[in-house]
Write a structure and sequence with these properties.
Layout: E1 7-11, H1 18-28, E2 32-37, H2 45-50, E3 57-61, E4 74-77, H3 86-93, E5 97-99, H4 101-109, E6 112-117, H5 122-135, E7 141-145, E8 164-168, H6 171-180, E9 186-189, H7 204-211, E10 223-227, H8 228-237, E11 245-249, H9 265-280, H10 285-294, E12 303-308, E13 311-315, H11 322-332, E14 342-346, H12 356-362, E15 366-372, H13 375-384, E16 395-398, H14 401-411, E17 417-420, H15 433-445
Parallel strand pairs: 1-2, 1-4, 2-3, 4-5, 6-8, 6-9, 7-8, 9-10, 10-11, 13-17, 14-15, 14-17, 15-16
Antiparallel strand pairs: 12-13
Helix pairs in contact: 4-6, 5-9, 5-10, 6-7, 9-10, 11-12, 12-13
Length: about 450
């Protein structure tokens, strides 16, 4: 595609690096670029710094304008743009092509796409599968999709037809695949749980319908690798015949006897899905087994940060829903243990999720509880029946990581575990979940 002189509106820049990467690519190719974002200049400072040298970018910040969705050749929308956005409606009314980064790349590149989705676990599967493929000696493997700091569209300058591109795909990016009526030739579906219901206005089926684009347009020669849990959800919501070859992967028994380094039963299930995908892609068993044994996990997913004065610190910041946080907590406090050792840092913003099971799961598993302020925290406290409920000291509510870590250090004794596993979104206290995890890790490394 010749981008030179194309009038393109980018809706959403963000600070995670994906939007910046797309903007750099398009501006570098000579596009006439308008970037519009609801965040202001101060909030986008790091991204704007990277784009400072481009003269063919116009910025509309702190707002959107209807006029930027008229008389343009293309609109590229970021993940999370509202389903009923009046600006996207305006673009379509004016017969302007609307695309998303990952799906536009898939349409233009001629690459063979391997896609991974699911409510949780997709990052772990994607990163392990990437390591397996690289260890297999395949030099033409690229990583894209929902990976922090990576934009997919710029891969058009590197990827040749037939190359393998491994993509982590969230429900928003899969909207683009659905609009383009394409699916990866190998798809992995880890699980389907309640999440992002604030975005989907409580409609679980709408959330599923976006996820289902991972397999909806596959052919009989393609593969869908799916967990048992996700397959139950597919049968509930998907009323048509799946055309591709379906491989249902059971629980972690597939890896019995395998050496692994990452923690948690849920993560073993993720490993099993990645192994199944690697086999479909023709990787030798010895290579797969070696990669699994060496895999340390994805950052922010039960990530061991360090042991200081006999206390272990774990960063599980990507546990943004209660089920994920509870899975981590159950790993560290098995049923056979009567003396909890976990100081849990949790809570935050709400995504219209239910915290009943999470609240029940805290009892007897948590030594001390520290919560970031937010609507999810209000729900947790309500479900627990108030602040004096789960441990001797009750719960502490804070509005920053510094105070959370000060309290955690005061509570922790030799042999204890400080676990950041929020079970909630980060907004209101942090810019995003990654900043939350980075602040936790920095605080741990700063302990003297």
């Amino acid at each position: 595609m010749d981008w030179k002189g194309k009038k393109i509106t980018m809706m959403g820049l963000g600070v995670l690096g994906r939007g910046v990467g797309v903007a750099e690519f398009l501006a570098g190719e000579g596009a006439d670029l308008v970037i519009t974002d609801l965040k202001n200049e101060a909030e986008l400072k790091s991204s704007l710094e990277r784009l400072r040298g481009y003269k063919n970018i116009k910025y509309i910040l702190g707002r959107h304008r209807i006029s930027d969705f008229r008389n343009r050749d293309l609109v590229i929308k970021a993940a999370g743009v509202p389903l009923d956005s009046i600006y996207i409606q305006e673009a379509r009314k004016n017969k302007i092509q609307v695309e998303m980064d990952a799906s536009l790349f898939a349409k233009l590149s001629g690459a063979r796409i391997v896609g991974v989705t699911g409510t949780k676990g997709k990052s772990t599967v994607t990163h392990l599968l990437d390591e397996i493929l690289r260890k297999s000696g395949n030099k033409r493997v690229f990583l894209g999709g929902n990976v922090k700091g990576l934009a997919t569209l710029p891969l058009l300058k590197k990827v040749k037809k037939g190359d393998l591109v491994l993509m982590e795909l969230d429900s928003w990016q899969l909207q683009g695949f659905g609009e383009a009526k394409i699916s990866p030739f190998v798809s992995v579906f880890t699980n389907f749980l309640d999440d992002h219901l604030n975005y989907y206005k409580g409609d679980r089926k709408k959330y599923f319908n976006d996820k289902a684009n991972i397999f909806r347009y596959q052919s009989k020669d393609d593969y869908l690798i799916i967990s048992r849990q996700a397959s139950v959800e597919v049968k509930k919501y998907f009323k048509w015949r799946i055309k591709s070859k379906v491989l249902a992967v059971g629980d972690s028994g597939l890896l019995n006897g395998w050496k692994t380094r990452i923690l948690g039963e849920h993560n073993l299930r993720n490993l099993a899905l990645a192994v199944a995908a690697a086999r479909v892609l023709g990787v030798r068993e010895g290579v797969i087994k070696k990669a699994v044994g060496e895999f340390k996990g994805a950052p922010g997913r039960l990530e061991f940060v360090g042991k200081i004065k006999g206390v272990d610190y774990y960063n599980d910041t990507t546990a943004t829903m209660p089920e994920a946080a509870l899975a981590a907590l159950k790993f560290f406090t098995p049923a056979r243990t009567n003396k909890p050792r976990v100081i849990l840092i949790a809570g935050g913003a709400d995504k219209l999720l239910d915290y009943g099971d999470f609240a029940k799961g805290l009892k007897g598993r948590v030594k001390e509880l520290i919560l970031f302020k937010g609507a999810a925290t209000d729900k947790i406290v309500e479900k627990l029946g108030g602040m004096k409920f789960v441990c001797e000291g009750g719960a502490e509510v804070v509005d920053n990581m510094k105070d959370a870590m000060r309290l955690a250090r005061g509570f922790a004794k030799k042999g204890d575990i400080v676990l950041l596993s929020p079970g909630a979104a980060s907004f209101g206290v942090f810019k995003n979940e990654f900043e939350r995890g980075e602040q936790f890790c920095d605080a741990v490394r700063g302990i003297k």
